[in-house]
């Protein structure tokens, strides 16, 4: 379980660094991308590494991130 948590934290760090190159994105687009990334990591951790949990988490997180500024 510790390995999954370290992987998840690393994935979030890489995603945040990658978003630095997206300066042309709108605030809503950035929120969608961040929400999808955080949701994917959360879904992965909560389901013990299940691909379906990761994809489901990304979808839910992306929708929440997209709707935040509306």
User: Would you count the extended β strands for me?
Assistant: 0
Largest sheet: none
What low-confidence regions span 5 or more consecutive residues with pLDDT below 50? none
- What is the terminal-to-terminal distance? 37 Å
What this model shows, in words?
The radius of gyration is 12 Å and the shape is flat. It is mainly α. The termini are far apart. 79% of the residues lie in helices and 0% in strands. The chain has one domain (2-9, 26-67). Helix 1 packs antiparallel against helix 2 and helix 2 runs antiparallel to helix 3 (51-67).
Question: Descriptors for this entry?
Answer:
single chain, 70 residues, mainly alpha, 79% helix, flat
Please describe the topology of this protein.
Blueprint: H1 2-19, H2 27-46, H3 51-67
Quick recap of the structure?
The chain is mainly alpha-helical. It contains 3 helices and no strands.
